[in-house]
Amino acid sequence: MDLFRKKDINKLTENATPLKRTLKTWDLTFLGIGAIIGTGIFVLTGKGALTAGPALSVSFLIAAICCGFAGLCYAEFASMAPVAGSAYTYSYIAFGELIAFIIGWDLILEYALAAATVSVGWSGYLVDLLNSVGLHIPTALTAAAGTTPGVSTVFNLPAFLIVLLITWLISVGINQTKRVNDTMVIVKLGVVILFIVCTVWFVNKSNWTPFSPFGWYSHHNGSATGIIPAASIVFFSFIGFDSVSSSAEETINPSKTLPKGILYSLLISTVLYIGMTLIMTGVVKYPVFNKYLNAPIQAILHATGQTWLSIIVSVGAILGMTTVILVQLYGQSRISYSMSRDGLFPKFFGEVNPKYQTPYKGTWFFGIITAIAGGLINLNILSELVNIGTLTAFTLVSAGIMWMRHTQPDLHRGFKAPGVPFTPLLSIVFCLVLIAGLNWETWVRFAIWLVLGLCVYFGYSRKHSVMNKA
Amino acid sequence: MSVYQKIMVGIDGSSPSKRAFEIGSQLAKALSAKLYLVSVVNRDAGMDSSFGVNQDFYNDMAQTAAKQLQDYVAQAKELGLEVEAAAPVGNAKTVLAKDYPLEHKIDLIILGNTGLNGLRDIMVGSHSSYVIRRSDSDVLIVK
């Protein structure tokens, strides 16, 4: 049996209707900003600042450049199939079953843990909001063990509960419309801009020296520190930018529009991120974030004493994050559905509830696991695992398009990445550098996850794959 | 000239939508109109996410829906009707109210009242009431 057996592309295109080309540069830019500006900035800037000091602003730039190259490669990859599908399905066609399984397995980790990461941030802002109106949740139940040094916490109850609540919403088929999503984008952008305008006056330039206390890469108290490790952490803040890349088939004149859309959306969000980072590390000395790991923006607002603003930011962040958890958990149940349909996962995950039209059982299965992860695992571990998962997927995709240019030069491509082979090579280099910047524990955890995946593949999936019947 | 020439029926497998189909086919027969059967796979663009992971699910749902429509098509043909069926993926409300009717110049839309209740009604809203409000064609709601 062939490890790299491939699906037939004609099977995929049988029933598909071509998409209308309607998107222009600014549609793509708004789409990209909407997908990017989410939760990373509300959740991970604290950890980032502790890792790199004020030089975190440089880290954002590096992460953005990585995303730019990876985004171009992913755009070519997604445009090879003339119909809308997932990265998993495309790789089943292009690279064969084993790589497809690895990408799918990888995306399951990314989605589940991204939802868990965001739920932890959600909880951080909720606890802060409740505190400011005089309601106190017992400290032990506000965060996972080992979140804040010196504070004894056990379980993140709010994170656990919000994931279960949203799992239930998804399981009964409640979705979010484009309009709600766009409104949330504006809320999130509004919060970011309001924050910048109201706090820039409190910057004390002396807090910016030393600008880069840990250099490019070093080790401090057993964990990686410096600009590169911080870039590896805040990479999370850009996840979602590839939604621009997957729009090649809906874009007018994609070869010009798409790179511009990717560039502008990354540029605008990076400028906002850098502005925010400089303000945050300018208002307080960066070690202060130690006490505000789950809700870093509150470190600033407590320092400036703007309680009113802190309430607005909390409410905005909570609303924005709720929708992000919704989208992540939804994607989670759909990727396991796809794998089950192909026989790589048990039928359990592919059963669709006829009344709600949702993969009901799979949604609950992963929802419960995600809730437990959000309750028990601290933010640093969760977010690093999400990043390594996403970076690995982009590395595979970038390597894949180079390989495909070589093996199948005449294949239909709705969009061709400029500057091949340099663009994919740079994408791979940046992704690997960011992976290298993560803590070694993350590499080990991820390796265990992959080995586990290979056990599932060789123990179950190969025997049950639908491809066996072909 | 007959009043309605192109009649669209929204199909979702529920019992009101089955009644809508029966009424639609009887009307089409009586008026010698063409019957259009539409089963929309709802895709809310607000749920789109990285690596396009949701797309396969929509594609599969559309295939399933297209298969289910075949039964209805067969029944309509038995009545001697001219019939066309489609299972598009998109926002169910706008596809039913605007996109499909405009593209096919539909002059009567027939829908079953889906009878949503409680939370779903608040958060999702009823398709039929949206179509009544937004559609340019006449709308008949079957209870």
Automatic annotation (TrEMBL), chain A:
Record protein name field: Amino acid permease
InterPro entries: AA/rel_permease1 (IPR002293)
Transmembrane segment boundaries: 28-50, 56-75, 155-174, 186-203, 223-241, 262-288, 308-331, 364-382, 388-405, 417-437, 443-460
GO molecular function: amino acid transmembrane transporter activity
One Pfam family, short name: AA_permease_2
Organism superkingdom: Bacteria
Alphabetized UniProt keyword annotations: Membrane, Transmembrane, Transmembrane helix, Transport
Lineage per the UniProt record: Bacteria, Bacillati, Bacillota, Bacilli, Lactobacillales
Automatic annotation (TrEMBL), chain B:
InterPro entries named among the record's database cross-references: Rossmann-like_a/b/a_fold, Universal_stress_UspA, UspA
Domain UspA span(s) in chain numbering: 4-143
Family, similarity comment: Belongs to the universal stress protein A family.
PANTHER family: STRESS RESPONSE PROTEIN NHAX (PTHR46268), UNIVERSAL STRESS PROTEIN UP12 (PTHR46268:SF6)
This protein's name: Universal stress protein UspA
Organism per entry: Ligilactobacillus salitolerans
Lineage: Bacteria, Bacillati, Bacillota, Bacilli, Lactobacillales
